[in-house]
Amino acid sequence: MAFDVSSLANYVDQSSTELIGRSYFENRSAEYFGGLQTGIKTSAALQLLEVSAVAQADTACSFTASGTTTFTQRNLTVGAVKYQDVLCPKALRAKWTQLLLKKGNNAENEELTFEATIGDMLIMMIKEDVETWDWQGDAGTVGFYDGLIKLIDAATTAVAGNTTSATSITVSNVIAIVNAMCDAVPARLKTKSDKVLFIGTDVFDLYVNALITANLYAVDATTWADYTMTVPGKNVKVVGVHGLDGTSRLFLGRTPNFFLGVDMESDEEEFEIWYSKDDRNIKYNVSFKRGVQVAYPNEIVQFTVAP
After folding, report:
1. CB within 8 A of 123, min separation 6: which ones?
2. What residues have CB less than 8 Å from 234, skipping those under 6 apart?
3. pTM of the model
4. In what order do the strands lie in the sheet with 159-160?
5. Which of 47, 173, 194, 292 is deepest in the core (most CB within 10 A)?
């Protein structure tokens, strides 16, 4: 007699309780924003000061006033964001996920063994969201506050960096595009050592491939690690960020010119997770305020593909 197992499903070992999360990209753009303004509930002004004086011939005993000290403002508006969910432990009973439950009816309801994992993944997901919003945000449409692309474009005073009239970014023209961006920097910023060129990781890949194709091995290959490097022959750091992926936009400016506004520093890294006796569910809540701005848009060099 033979075994007849035709009515049985093939066995899959589901006893492992090791939870494996997907990969998330980081909010690395904010690492290069040199300005941080805290305590913002809705909107706060960046207080700008400019002094303009006119040189005069010192040939007479006289005093002639000639100059202007000007105060201006740019508002940094934050959006209020929250993440909330309800988790019912009883939903885990019927599947292999019962292995994740604590023993005892009350214990399994009141605390999950993987709460810390949920918290870690939630924070990583939030950082992924705000990386996109910091650049591509459009309050109420994409995220909850306006991103740098919209803010810089709206100012209309940024320096045009597409001096080659490029209609796309390719391996064959990306070196020329990056060099043209650096060359377009206003003269008063040329010698500043804190300039950064933000590009998408997709454009960064093209740039590195172009350097390799051009056989420019004079560039230290170790500086290409982690999507940062210095433009050869220029005192400009190139940073590849996910927030600009797919946009074909490039932005160059001094790090102190980019501002991040929050209510409380790192408040998105603090979250609540609790057992609710009212409906016997586990709940979590994360809430924070966030926004971005540039102080002087006319000190930004921006690239947009030609139509």
Report:
1. 268, 269, 271, 286
2. 179, 182
3. 0.89
4. 159-160, 301-303, 250-254, 195-200, 237-241, 228-230
5. 292
